Amino acid sequence: MILDQEPEGSASSPDKEPAGAEHFPKETAATALRTTDAAEVPGPPAGNRFIAALWSANTVTVTVLSLVLAMVIGGVLICLSDPDVTATYGYFFAAPGDALSASWSAISEAYANLFKGAIVDPAAVSGWLNGENTIWLALYPLSETLTYTAPLVFTGLAVALAFRGGLFNIGAQGQAIMGAAVAGLVGFGLHLPPGLHVILVLIAGALGGAVYGFVPGILKARTGAHEVITTIMLNYIALYFLSWLIVQDGVQDPNRSDAISKPVDSTGLLPKLAGGDLRVHLGILLSVGAVVAVAWLLNRATFGLELRAVGLNPDAARTAGMSVAATYTGTMVIAGALAGLGGTTVLLGTAGALTGSVAGNIGFDGITVALLGRGKPWGVLLAALLFGALRAGGNRMQSFSGIPVDLVDVLTALIVLFIAAPALVRSVFRLRAGRTGRLETTVAKGW
Amino acid sequence: MVANDHIDLTVEPGEIHALLGENGAGKSTLMNVLYGLLQPDEGEILINGEPRHIKGPRDAIQAGIGMVHQHFMLVPVFTVAENVMLGAERARGGPLGILDRARARRDVREVSNRYGLRVDPEAIVEDLPVGVQQRVEIIKALTRDVDLLILDEPTAVLTPNETAELLEVMRSLKAAGKSIVFITHKLKEVKAIADRITVVRRGRTVGTAAPDASEAELASLMVGRQVMLRVEKVPAEPGEVVLSVAGLAVADERGHRAVDGVDLEVRAGEVLGLAGVQGNGQTELVEAVMGLRHALAGTATLNGEQLLGRRTKDVLASGVGYIPEDRSVDGLIKEFTIAENLILDQYDREPFGSKLALRLDRIDAAARQRVEEFDVRTPSHQAPVSTLSGGNQQKVIVAREMSRPLTLLVAAQPTRGVDVGSIEFIHKRVIAARDAGAAVLLISSELDEVISLADRVAVMYRGRILATVPATESRERIGLLMAGITDEPETTEGGGE
């Protein structure tokens, strides 16, 4: 016996459809998401959840606000590191205007130099328009930015691709070093016609990185060894291997006493894009090509579907007949090849010869770039451009404003810190919680 | 999204109040609000007439509300007493003193005796059967002195016997003056125990009913239309043996022989129901057949060809459809779109892909068509599958596995956690596959499902097939077999616990 029942089609259910036609309107479906998510579905492993949280944060808002926050804190650091400014704070209460104006001029000058060094210096442009200097001087900042960007795109892609496959590739640094090392051997070891040589060197670099990515991949697939541990250790091996390699007979430059290899043949170098005056080279175009290729791989290739499936839910991937082990290995091979190309780009674009620090820090910066780019190929390109610009601008900031270039490292670290902690950014800017959508869910699950 | 739209619910002291509704109707959301896991946008919670603001589980417990979740919140390697103590630890000798385990044990014994729960405080939780683990959860709530106990789908994981015991426990709690909110979508249990029934549909209370309302009445109230509870089917016409399993032995994760010498045959055009309480080796049996788990011994052949040792991809490609038992873990990738999930095991085969590239246009077209054909309720086939309700998620798996010609369909718990409307649809599809000549191996712990779908029923207990009986066998007999009791129902040894 039904005691009471709300009349069908009454005012309380205005969206009632004809019985039997469709009893599930759209909102019910989404309702189920909330309920299921909260109560039924166990979360993915912690590592995946970390990555998922990074991507699910409201991307544009949080990224922009993270930049702003980092710049603000950077501003404080600029004031603190400038003795002239700190001196004014000694008599702050007597003349607060002094302190504030000194701070403002220090910060604005530093950031202005950062901008001029990274994008454009108005003085150089007007100088070119008035015929006082060449166009190359006006384009110099952009050239520097793109030069720094190119290798970061490669290593950023190497880390991002692995992320999407559920792997935390800390080893981009080692893969980049091995790529550069193998590329260097082919670069000065073989003497080939132009064109062919540079292509072979690039392939060698990719192979070197790929082999070095294969190692943690196969270890993970076969033995379950965690890739974070193995890649960190392999980074050391690569670093010291390179230090050893460059002082060997036949490798070390016979005309030099310091640890540097013979220079790569000019036929093996990446051609400059704007003649001899600017450093920008073909690497930046290659890196954009790599972005396109990785985007295609992830979204349109069968392997990309496997990679993403394994990254998000290895159990379901296995049940659907995919080989999780093969996918892990394949992912690391491709990631290694990308990182290897990153190292090769530095070697062939700017360094010209192997040194112990030829790969600089590009592998580790690649992790930051991949995080900032949210694991998406085009996001990586944008993030690498930002980091490239900060690097290029940082140089000018150091020489013109006397701010240590290390501030750039602090800035990038802060940016990533804020992006990794979106809840922090939200609370600083008092963003309405409900507006950030999926972020809420992740927080509710224990973030 | 509005999951609960102005719901009113009143629970009297000493009352068992059933909250009945389909998956995604908003039952769990409502209870999460009560338990402080979610905050209401509007409305208030009155406890004994006083408005209370419940900000989290701690507040809820203080207000006298306890909850037993569908998935138990127990630490498997701890003892019962330790689990009960967790979060409310008491120490002897100040805050830095020694944990008072003796007192925790005493508490467990005391509560356990008072309500007839029969739980040993010293037992390690992972060694206990699911039904007893559930009682540990209940004890956990009771030791915190709650007056209102929320049981979220408590019978989903229980055998018929354990369910009967749980209902007994609920009655003794009620006798002690506790109120219980009993969330479920199983009509029989509701009728057996509830004092009042509130039916929720699409986030609204659509009615209250007394326990003497008929099942059909309740079901139609739940779904909003008349539902066919029995599956209409013609008698099976079994053909050749398609799947033949002999002497199969499979180990589980802990190295125990979860499947211990199983023989079974499934013929073309018939449904073999593999009944049994979860955890009696069904999962391992299926995974061995599907190439997901290594078999220790025995054979499994598909039309005479050995299946064991082949890759899952090849097993699937040889005309096997597989609905895995846990859709959120093994069946779907939640973040993927419906379209992607629909090709998850066919992406590298024509027509959806070649060796290298996906054919996105074809994938898209096929998804559009299948969403339509399998009645997946979604705004778009490009929406992430996580936005669907449980029933619609399951339909995506069914659509994926059943829209190619099948020689064998392995359906494990195909309607678990699925609303009545979707159950009906999935059942029809399974029977349609049977009638099209596929052999169907149906694994289910729902007796009703096995009886209504299967042509023959094999009951699995502790890694073996206890008996294979015609589906016309009485529910009682099959229920007893599921509990491991083979012949004389009066013998008590070897019971389900």
Automatic annotation (TrEMBL), chain A:
Keywords: Cell membrane, Membrane, Transmembrane, Transmembrane helix. InterPro entries: ABC_transp_permease. Residues 1-24 are annotated as: Disordered. It holds the Pfam family BPD_transp_2. It is a multi-pass membrane protein. The chain crosses the membrane at residues 59-78, 146-163, 170-190, 196-215, 227-247, 278-298, 319-341, 347-372, 379-398, 410-429. It is found in: Cell membrane. Residues 14-24 have a biased composition (Basic and acidic residues). This is ABC transporter permease.
From TrEMBL, chain B:
Transmembrane segments: none annotated. It comes from the Bacteria. GO terms for molecular function: ATP binding. Keywords: ATP-binding, Nucleotide-binding. Pfam families: ABC_tran (PF00005). Residues 1-227, 243-487 form the ABC transporter domain. InterPro entries: AAA+_ATPase, ABC_carbohydrate_import_ATPase, ABC_transporter-like_ATP-bd, ABC_transporter-like_CS, P-loop_NTPase. PANTHER family: CARBOHYDRATE TRANSPORT ATP-BINDING PROTEIN MG119-RELATED, GUANOSINE IMPORT ATP-BINDING PROTEIN NUPO. This is ABC transporter ATP-binding protein. It comes from Luedemannella helvata.
